[in-house]
From TrEMBL:
Family of this protein: Belongs to the cAMP-dependent kinase regulatory chain family.
Lineage: Eukaryota, Metazoa, Ecdysozoa, Arthropoda, Hexapoda
Protein name: cAMP-dependent protein kinase type II regulatory subunit
One Pfam family cited in the UniProt record for this chain: cNMP_binding
Gene name in the database record: LOC108040617
Alphabetized PANTHER family for the sequence: CAMP-DEPENDENT PROTEIN KINASE REGULATORY CHAIN, CAMP-DEPENDENT PROTEIN KINASE TYPE I REGULATORY SUBUNIT-RELATED
Organism for this UniProt entry: Drosophila rhopaloa (Fruit fly)
SUPFAM superfamilies linked to this entry: cAMP-binding domain-like, Dimerization-anchoring domain of cAMP-dependent PK regulatory subunit
Length: 373
């Protein structure tokens, strides 16, 4: 090492911070082109800083996070944001982070039962085979937390992924509160999935209990399946206008929750009057929406690729308002169950409720036409 300290290049803290924030933003957004993204990112940064002032990272909105509390409705995404929600350039198949070892943490029956209960609603685990699920359960270990404990710090390397058994956890980006977990959910998956620094800080608000899984096990068992699924639904989720109101992060969670279903020509997908169990997005093909009228069914609408149905009963908590049939060949749908719908799309219900007004208006028009006949 040189003893001549005057020749050492000083890296300003501001430069480090700006580059770190840029990298996090880039990795969360996963845009197709780094240069285009950098131009857009730094232009936005420049336009937002106070005139004549220097960049104040701690108060800037680096990740397009709205300053409002996360409990409020999230911002609608600016149109300049990239279409791609998912990691296009990053190929997990080529990324071999696998040292072959799977940790096993022995558990009592009581612990295992609690763990099974905690992971029941983890969307990321949905596409796992039974054997993989058992490996996941073996590999998870308990971590007790106290109020104020930092579980994850923004910018750190990713070590573990966490599933919440109990406790309240607050999420911060650049010291701004952006999300809260209340006794359920998971966090810490982003850094491990995308091989990037932690995108946010997670701090325990109360005492609680977490189930953790180390990075190697997470990547070995979950990486490829989670990636395939997110990639598979990318185009579909980008093509649904209503979902533009979701943040990238939420759209990724939505992809984890979807289940593919196929219906043959003529097959009934939804029956009017039934209780609802979820909603559908159309991946391929068309469906016919029909309503009972006297003793017959009347077609009231046809829907195609990128459109959705079955949301009405979920929003109104009423039985299905119409029947829906597959038409014109095989129809491929992505199904979102009620529980996941409420968790992910809860705040979109205002958007969805606007449809009800349209449906009701059409219903009134139709009834009026019928009585005039
Ligand atoms: P991680 O490994 O990056 C921090 O470590 C964790 O905070 C992250 O994984 C997520 O599990 C969790 N954006 C990014 N990370 C979030 C967000 C989030 N919410 C929770 N985490 N949001 C989007 C902000 C632009 C909030 C969405 C409501
Ligand atoms: P659901 O959960 O009630 C049937 O199950 C679905 O058909 C419904 O959600 C909507 O997603 C979809 N009126 C009611 N439901 C409709 C309509 C509709 N169109 C599609 N669905 N109208 C047609 C509006 C173009 C009004 C008819 C008078």
């Amino acid at each position: 090492m040189s003893s001549d300290s005057s020749r050492k290049i000083q890296v300003p803290d501001e430069l480090k911070e700006v580059l770190l924030q840029f990298s996090i933003s880039f990795l969360v957004e996963q845009p197709p082109d780094v240069i285009d993204y950098a131009v857009e990112y730094f232009t936005k940064l420049q336009s937002e800083r106070p005139s004549g002032g220097h960049t104040d990272i701690s108060t800037d909105d680096q990740l397009s996070v709205n300053s409002q509390d996360a409990d409020a409705e999230p911002p609608v995404m600016a149109s300049s944001r990239r279409k791609s929600v998912f990691a296009e350039a990053y190929d997990p198949e080529a990324d071999d982070d696998d040292d072959g070892a799977t940790a096993v943490f022995p558990k009592t029956d009581e612990q295992r039962a609690r763990l099974v209960e905690s992971v029941k609603n983890v969307l990321l685990f949905r596409s796992l085979e039974k054997e993989q699920m058992n490996q996941v359960l073996d590999a998870m270990f308990e971590r007790k937390v106290q109020p104020g404990d930092y579980i994850i710090r923004q910018g750190d390397d990713g070590d573990n992924f966490y599933v919440i058994e109990s406790g309240v956890y607050k999420v911060y980006i650049n010291d701004k509160h952006i999300n809260t977990y209340n006794h359920t959910g998971l966090f810490g998956e982003l850094a491990l999935l995308y091989n990037m620094p932690r995108a946010a800080t997670v701090q325990a608000e109360t005492s609680g209990l977490l189930w953790a899984m180390d990075r190697q096990t997470f990547r070995r068992i979950l990486l490829k399946s989670a990636f395939r699924k997110r990639k598979m639904y990318e185009e579909l989720l980008n093509s649904v206008p209503m979902l533009k109101a979701l943040q990238n992060y939420e759209r990724m969670n939505l992809a984890d929750a979807l289940v593919s279903k196929s219906y043959d020509n003529g097959e009934r997908i939804i029956k009017q009057g039934d209780a609802a169990d979820g909603m559908y997005f159309i991946e391929e093909g068309t469906v016919s929406v029909r309503m009972d009228q006297d003793d017959a069914e009347v077609e009231i609408s046809q829907l195609g690729k990128g459109q959705y149905f079955g949301e009405l009963a979920l929003v109104t908590h009423r039985p299905r308002a119409a029947s829906v049939y597959a038409t014109g060949g095989v129809v491929k749908l992505a199904f979102l169950d009620t529980e996941a719908f409420e968790r992910i799309m809860g705040f979109l219900t205002d958007v969805l409720k606007r449809n009800i007004v349209i449906y009701e208006q059409m219903f009134t028009d139709m009834a009026r036409r019928n009585t005039n006949l």
